[in-house]
Amino acid sequence: MKTILGKKIGMTQIFSEAGEVIPVTVIEAGPVVVTQVKTAATDGYEAVQIGFEDQKAHRVNKPMTGHFNKNGLGLKKHLAEFRLEDGEAYEIGQTITAADFEIGKKLDITGTSKGKGTQGNIKRHGHHRGPTSHGSKHKRLAGALAAGTYPSRVFKGNKGPGRMGRDTVTVQNVVLVKVIDDRNLMLVRGAVPGPKGGILRIQYAVKGQDK
């Protein structure tokens, strides 16, 4: 399924022809270059590898440099691949741009969520706080974790404090509102994962797509 990589620019709002305010995320999508075409004969499956953003030569190791030079392509910073569907065909060196995506279609967008560091139960899992009466000393603590005599241990899988964020998150069925071809920009309705400047993977929605 056709896929493109992009960089999150930020959020703004636009107005529809009816005067409706539409909150949108602006994404600099592509252009990406097809760097490898995988086939069942050589790789065991059919897929396309794409590269996004130019990279300086001294920041690419020798194996990856050889991979790009093999097909006479420029060095790329980010790589991704997607499986081919029936009827799809790509060639090495082919460019995929934001203009190749149809306005009004739904997209699945994958990114890395913002890291929150180590957090407690209330922020991480939405637990209720404890009593706030004078001297309780139990406002934001985790509370009891296990029974006493039996089983005398904490069960695995309990929700507790720990690292929060920096996870791979996919937002499904995001509508593509507008494409600005000359600036390689996609405007999609609503929010998408990650901070400004974060790398996003964009493809047509797998579920809920209008035929």
TrEMBL record:
Feature: compositional bias, Polar residues: 110-121
Pfam families in alphabetical order: Ribosomal_L3
Alphabetically ordered keywords of this record: Ribonucleoprotein, Ribosomal protein, RNA-binding, rRNA-binding
Annotated Basic residues bias: 122-140
PROSITE patterns, per database record: RIBOSOMAL_L3
Highest taxon of source: Bacteria
Name of the protein in question: Large ribosomal subunit protein uL3
An annotated Gene Ontology molecular function: structural constituent of ribosome
GO cellular component, one term: cytosolic large ribosomal subunit
Keyword match Ribonucleoprotein: yes
InterPro entries tied to this protein: Ribosomal_uL3, Ribosomal_uL3_bac/org-type, Ribosomal_uL3_CS, Transl_B-barrel_sf
Gene behind this protein: rplC
Assembly mode: Part of the 50S ribosomal subunit. Forms a cluster with proteins L14 and L19.
Region (Disordered): 110-140
One record GO biological process: translation
Protein's organism: Aminipila luticellarii
Purpose of the protein: One of the primary rRNA binding proteins, it binds directly near the 3'-end of the 23S rRNA, where it nucleates assembly of the 50S subunit.
Family: Belongs to the universal ribosomal protein uL3 family.
